Amino acid sequence: MFDTSLTLADLGFLAQGAAMTLAVTAVSVIAGTILGIVFGVIRNQAGPYWSIPLTFLLDVFRSVPLLIQLVLGNAAQSIFKLGWPPFTTSCVVLSLYTAAYCTEIVRGGISSVPATTRRAARSLGLTWWQDMRYIVAPLATRVSLPAWIGLTLGVMKDSALVLWLGLIELLRASQILVTRLQEPLFILIICGAIYFIISFPVARLGGYLEKRWSPND
Amino acid sequence: MIEIENVRKSFGQLEVLKGINLTVKKGEVLTIIGGSGSGKSTLLTCINGLETIDAGRIVVDGTDVHAKGTDLNKLRRKLGIVFQQFNAFPHLTVLENVMLAPVKVLGQSKAEAEAMAVKQLSHVGLGDKLKVYPSRMSGGQQQRMAIARALAMSPDYMLFDEVTSALDPQLVGEVLDTMRLLSSEGMTMIVVTHEIAFAREVSDRVAFFHKGRIHEIGPPAQVIGAPQQPETAAFLKSVL
């Protein structure tokens, strides 16, 4: 017969961990997306030559394993005596990591808008900003959305690495319970199920938006 | 009036316009014909400042298009242009396509812009397609929508850049009919086209471009009916 020492309080502890995972992911994805849009537009406008420094910096964030970035980020905030709590350090590092990927998604989305369409918009007297706002942004968003959803889900799972900075997010909370209760399989199944439950709506959002936009295509 | 004085334009080593001089008066329909690469389309994009020029001057109603300090966005309000590709905004309905610029550029109210858009779309025969997305329309309908979109800005001049070239033959007629209508209403038009019969019918003057220069210009009866230059005659023979 199935028997477990897991209590309701332990489930509450896991829920707290899940809330931390969600908080770190939300802050990082929002900040990373805003930065990614800014960098993506700069990359697109500046052309390959002038955007070399930015591209190099973003390549570093895309190439170095996230765990190393988190450890180095934490060391840096300590060396520079910034006094950041682990949550802030985690969010800053994860935001830059997200921004590095999001920049390429945004750049690709903007490039997908035909030059002739943009030319037609400008020929009507729309300014650069109006062209970006009313023509490029809606069209680029459609193209970029699937990749952005993938990035968001990836960041949500990668956020588990912030446990190395001492944050008790979902995976760390599960580890603590595993150590105490010695029921690794059962607890990890619950942990995985919670990850699925919080990821599922994001994944479905993409499908919903694609369906909503499809009559126009 | 559009005044073009000794305009030169190169793309890299290739000089596309080699000193164009041309004046188009209000109410005039000027048709530009010529082979591919003769500079016809480039001239149109230079007129509304989408392309820069290397030398010379283009003046539209007293405003030097390429002078520093010229507000191109403001100037483009009076210069409607329709391209070979339909360039519909695919995420907007036909009505929204036409309303966008009047609302955002001219600052019209939505009601005002909608009334104008409905009027122009009905004018080009698309009064029943207001809520349709461009992808659901034929090439000819999309091109007529592009014409209505330009007309909704109440431009003083219309520039047409081979607007029938990308259309199936059976759809060419409907777009030409729309342009005939505009010409009969007194719209000033510069039309780059390969539709020689159309050029003969609606033009006040026809200009034949050859290797970046105006090789021959005059009334259609002369340039198309009795060309003076052998290159003009050879071109007409190849397209007729």
In short:
By secondary structure, chain A is an all-alpha fold.
Give descriptors for this structure.
heterodimer; A: 217 residues; mainly alpha; MetI-like fold; 82% helix; B: 240 residues; alpha/beta; Rossmann fold; six-stranded mixed β-sheet; four-stranded antiparallel β-sheet; 10 strands
Please tell me about this protein's structure.
The complex is a heterodimer of chains A (217) and B (240). In chain A, helix 1 (8-50) runs antiparallel to helix 2, helix 1 packs across helix 8 (184-213) and helix 4 (86-111) packs across helix 6. Chain A has a single domain, classed as MetI-like (MetI-like fold), CATH 1.10.3720.10. Chain A has helices at residues 8-50, 52-63, 66-79, 86-111, 115-123, 128-158, 170-181, 184-213. The relative contact order of chain A is 0.16. Chain A is mainly α. Chain A has eight helices and no strands. Helices cover 37% and strands 25% of the residues of chain B. Chain B has one domain (2-239): P-loop containing nucleotide triphosphate hydrolases (Rossmann fold), CATH 3.40.50. In chain B, helix 3 runs parallel beside helix 5 (139-151). In chain B, the strands form two sheets. Chain B has a six-stranded mixed sheet with strand order 6-7-8-3-9-10, sandwiched between helices. Chain B has a four-stranded antiparallel sheet with strand order 2-1-4-5, covered by helices on one side. Classes of the chains: A mainly alpha (217), B alpha/beta (240). The interface between A and B is medium-sized, with 22 and 25 residues.
Write the SSE topology.
The complex is a heterodimer of chains A (217) and B (240).
Chain A: H1 8-50, H2 52-63, H3 66-79, H4 86-111, H5 115-123, H6 128-158, H7 170-181, H8 184-213
Helix pairs in contact in A: 1-2, 1-4, 1-7, 1-8, 2-4, 3-4, 4-6, 5-6, 6-8, 7-8
Chain B: E1 2-11, E2 14-24, E3 29-34, H1 40-47, E4 55-60, E5 63-64, H2 72-75, E6 79-82, H3 94-104, H4 110-123, H5 139-151, E7 157-161, H6 169-184, E8 188-192, H7 196-202, E9 205-210, E10 213-218, H8 220-225, H9 230-239
Parallel strand pairs in B: 3-8, 3-9, 6-7, 7-8
Antiparallel strand pairs in B: 1-2, 1-4, 4-5, 9-10
Helix pairs in contact in B: 3-4, 3-5, 4-5, 5-6
